[in-house]
Every structure is written in structure tokens, then in C-alpha cells.
Amino acid sequence: MTQNDLKPLNWDPDPDIGYAVERRGDGGMNVTFTNLDPGTLLHWREFALEHLIDSDRQTRNLYDLRRVESIPPEAVNLAIEANSDPGSRNIRLAIVVANESVRKAVLEITALSSSPGGGTNFKLFTDMEAAEEWLARPLDTMV
């Protein structure tokens, strides 16, 4: 994939929100969260849903939640909304967590958001290297 083939990131760093985004070399995104306060959640929701609108190809994303201590109920609800969008079916998502509380919340999100035609192909990790290895697998193994 060349730089010209990459979908625009449409990301502007903001010091008032608790996440950052960078484009991956494979065309996906790395999203690193430091907190899940209400402003961060609303900003992320808009960003995530905007990227699902014209999701037309399989993409690899990585969510780094290692610095997040817990996932509040409003974050669960927003993630269920995003994961239920039909565009999410094109995403292979590695989620890296550091504690059991966050792991359980992510499993709750995926259990509550499975819907026909939607739903991200995801896998949970505690090790960044293992997450990257999984993401590097051929996208045709998403089926």
C-alpha cells in the first residue's frame, strides 16, 4: 500500500482529550488511550463513526488501552454503538490491555454488540508484540 492509497486520517491532536491516533504503515490506525473522561469519549465517538461511514476495505487497527484503569459504562455504550455499525465488519482490531477490569469490559462490549452485518474481528492481548503479529496476518484470514 502506498502513501497515496491511504485514507486520510482526519486527526488533529488535542491536548484536552485522552487519546492519540496515528496512521499505520498498513493503512490502519493505532489509537492510544490515556483516559476515558466524557470529553475524550465524545471526541472518540465522532472520530470513530466518521471513519466507519465510508469503510470500504479491510483495515487493521490497534487500540492500546494499557494506560486505562477501567472502562466506564458510557464508554461501553459508545463502543457498542461503533462496533454495531456495518462498517466495523471491515476491521481487524487488536486491543491491548493491562488489567482484568479492562479486559472484562472489552469482552462485554463485544458480546453486546454482535449484530448481523456488523461487528469487528477483534482479539485481546496483553503483549504489544503479539498484537502486532496477529495484525500482520493476511487479511483474508478475517473470514
Structural features:
143 residues; alpha/beta; Transcription Regulator spoIIAA; 4 helices
| Envelope shape | globular
Cα distance, first to last residue?
21 Å
Mean pLDDT: 84
Order of helices and strands, N to C? EEHEHEHEH
The CATH superfamily label reads STAS domain
Any idea what the CATH architecture is?
Answer: 2-Layer Sandwich
**Approximate strand percentage:** 15-25%
Largest sheet: 5 strands, mixed
Number of helices: 4
Unreliable spans: none
CA radius of gyration? 14 Å
CATH topology: Transcription Regulator spoIIAA
Helix vs. strand class: alpha/beta
Number of domains: 1
Estimate percent helicity. 25-40%
Q: What is the number of strand segments? A: 5
Largest beta sheet: strand ordering:
1-2-3-4-5
CATH class identity:
Alpha Beta
